[in-house]
C-alpha cells in the first residue's frame, strides 16, 4: 500500500513539473517545409499498417498540416514542425465492429513523430498549434 501511494505521489509530482514552452523557444523554432499530401499519406499509411488490425479495412480522415510543437512527456524539450491530426476508423474483420482512434503526426526537420493523444494526462502540456497561441 505504501509503495502504491509513493508511486501515485511521484506521478503527480512529475505531472506538475510540466515546463511551459516559452515565446522565445517558439520564435527560435526551425521548421521544415510544409509536407505535401503524398508525404503525409506515406507516413500515415505506414503507421496504420503497423498499428492497426486489418489495416486494409481502415479508413482515415486527416486535417491539413499546421505549425505546432509537441512532446511525448510534459517535461521534455518540445519538437517543432507541421502537425497533421488523423482519425483512423478500423474495422474488425470477424465482428464488423469499428473503432475510431485519433493519431497526431509531427513532421519536423529531424524526422517524423507519431503521438497518441489518449496517452496524455493534459494535452495542453504536450501539444499546441502555433496559430492558436496569441
List the defining traits of the structure above.
6-stranded antiparallel beta sheet, Lipoprotein, 26% helix, single chain, 134 residues, 6 strands, alpha+beta, signal
Summarize the structure.
This protein has 134 residues and is α+β, with helices and mostly antiparallel strands. It has helices spanning 2-16, 23-27, 37-51, and strands at 59-62, 66-70, 79-91, 98-108, 111-115, 127-129.
Amount of beta strand: 25-35%
Q: Write down the overall mean pLDDT.
A: 85
Specify Rg, calculated over alpha carbons: 17 Å
Number of domains: 1
Please report the total strand number as a whole number. 6
The run of helices and strands is: HHHEEEEEE
Tally the helices: what do you get? 3
**Low-confidence parts lasting 5 or more residues at pLDDT below 50?**
8-15
Approximately how much helix is present in the residues?
25-40%
Biggest beta sheet attributes: 6 strands, antiparallel
| Shape type | globular
Distance between the termini: 45 Å
User: Which structural class should the secondary elements be placed in?
Assistant: alpha+beta
